Amino acid sequence: MQTIDLTGQKDELVIADAKQFKETLDRLLSEILASLEDQTDVAFIGIRSRGVHLARRLANGFMERTGRYVDVGTLDITFYRDDFGAIGLQPEIRDSKIDFSIDGKTVFLVDDVLFTGRTVRAALLCFADLGRTKSIRLVEFIDRGLRELPIQADFLGISVKTTPKQWLNVLVKTMDGEDKVVFCPHHKDTREIEDSK
After folding, report:
1. How many Å apart are CA 140 and CA 90, to the nearest integer?
2. Total-model pTM
3. Domain of 153?
4. What are the pLDDT digits (tens) for 159-180?
5. What pLDDT is stored for residue 81 in this prediction?
6. Is residue 183 part of a domain?
7. Number of domains in the chain
8. What is the pLDDT of residue 44?
9. Residue 184: inside a domain, yes or no?
10. Which domain CATH number covers 43?
């Protein structure tokens, strides 16, 4: 997969429009399906907030293509973050919603942007409290590099190279009214955009 180098980009830029967004999701789903054995017990779990919307779309596509039902869940990793004490005395807490057993399942953990790896680390700690999966496969729509932990996506939509002060925003139609990925040369406050992923 080719990596888009944005380190020298000075202006805001749309790096994926609605058509490219759909094509990327379709490719991710095809790669997921190709990786599975026929009888694998599967679930899609999205990390709040946009990862949840992406997980639902992948799950819907999975069911349409295979005719098989899959469980879909929502994971809120707030209490598991290693910067929990630093993000304020009253961080916004939203419940996880996983109303099925993950035991023995192949879980596709879905998120919008992979950056430092700390969000994924927190998600894995959550899973340790939820049960024993057969496996957890990480699905990331965007990888912007700059990892602080040894975490990589199993399924990756778009790879970009950025600097720490730049910002990538994944917009989803069900939450933001449109599907696209926007690059900005200067990111907003990390507490606003969850840029510690």
Report:
1. 28
2. 0.89
3. 19-162
4. 999 999 999 999 999 999 999 9
5. 56
6. no
7. 1
8. 98
9. no
10. 3.40.50.2020
